Amino acid sequence: MMRMQPTRPLLHVVGLRKRYGERDVLAGVDFSVEAGECVALTGESGVGKSTLLNCIAGLDSASAGEVWLGGEPMLRLPEPQQARLRRERLGFVFQAFHVLPHLSVADNVALPLMLLGRSEPARVMAMLDAVGLADRAGSWPAELSGGQLQRVAIARALVHRPPLLLADEPTGNLDPETATRILDVLWQQVRQEGAALLLVTHSRTAAARADRRWILGAEGIRAATDGAPHAD
Ligand SMILES: Nc1ncnc2c1ncn2[C@@H]1O[C@H](COP(=O)(O)OP(=O)(O)OP(=O)(O)O)[C@@H](O)[C@H]1O
Fold first, then answer.
1. Model confidence over 94-114: pLDDT tens digits?
2. How far apart are CA 163 and CA 5, in angstroms?
3. Best residue for ligand 1 mutational test, from 16, 41, 49, 61 (most atoms within 8 Å of Cβ)
4. Atom 30 (ligand 1) nearest CA
5. Ligand 1 mean position to 49 CA, how many Å?
6. Rounded Cα distance, 31 and 216, in Å
7. Record's Pfam families (predicted)?
8. Residue ranges of domains in the chain, CATH in brackets
9. pTM for this structure?
């Protein structure tokens, strides 16, 4: 008889803990995100949302716990294997975009593909087009506004079609119209490509589009109720 495989969440975080000195910023966080769903995460400033994303992405080291990504226990793997899986499976939109100043806009967007040994100029242009920057491919980051840099960062996070997207306030620097356009691009990745999106946001509009809404507090993650505070 054929045995059905239980479906595994794309991202499964178990008992994730982060201490800075004597202080627990994350005191055992547990949650899962399925492929094809968007989860919005909110919470007071300083509660640890960026720390949580950074620990999932391996930019910060967790003090305890495990991050299962596509069934792989990331924190238990040797560093080179962790790095390879992250390059393949993760797209990260940082709060401070981290666009590299010595690369053109197009080369910044192409970076994740390059690190995977792929050259897909048409895909790079399609992503630049999707974020409204097709005419800035040859520009230098110093010639762009903050909102434009944010859009470069979003195109770069999506270009290699990662199954997991982590976005830290991706619409924070954008006017409402551009913010809507950027959310459309992120959602397209979720709905059409089946990616999972973990979106840290204070924006009520952005959170309203998510499949699930969570709040990170000192006691861990809980579901947001309709009256949960949001700024826009
Ligand atoms: N390298 C560090 N050393 C010590 N404490 C740190 C470090 N990085 C972050 N923290 C502390 O960890 C806590 C969580 O910070 P984090 O940036 O994750 O919060 P956040 O919820 O993302 O806040 P915001 O909404 O303002 O971006 C803060 O109190 C911060 O001061």
1. 877 789 999 999 999 999 999
2. 20
3. 49
4. 46
5. 8
6. 11
7. ABC_tran
8. 35-61+80-223 (3.40.50.300)
9. 0.90
Nearest to 199 by CA among 170, 219, 221: 170
Nearest residue (CA) to ligand 1, atom 14: 48
- Structure token digits, residue 157: 């996070």
Contact predicate 108/99, CB 8 Å: yes
pLDDT tens-place string over residues 19-77: 999 889 999 999 999 999 999 999 999 999 999 999 999 889 999 999 999 999 999 99
Strand pairing report for 196-200 and 38-42: parallel
Q: Which atom of ligand 1 is nearest to the CA of 54?
A: 18
Ligand 1 nearest atom to the CA of residue 51, by list position: 18
**Tokens encoding 98:** 């981290």
C-alpha to C-alpha distance for 74 and 209, rounded to whole angstroms: 29
Provide the phi-psi class of 220: left if phi over 0, else alpha when psi is between -120 and 50, else beta. left
* Of the candidates 189, 140, 146, the residue with the CA atom closest to the CA atom of residue 169: 146
Q: Record the tokens describing residue 105, joined without a space.
A: 């806009």
Contact 66, 14 (CB under 8 A): yes
Give the largest Cα separation in the chain, rounded: 63
Residue closest to 169 by CA, chosen among 89, 73, 97, 67: 97
ipTM score: 0.95
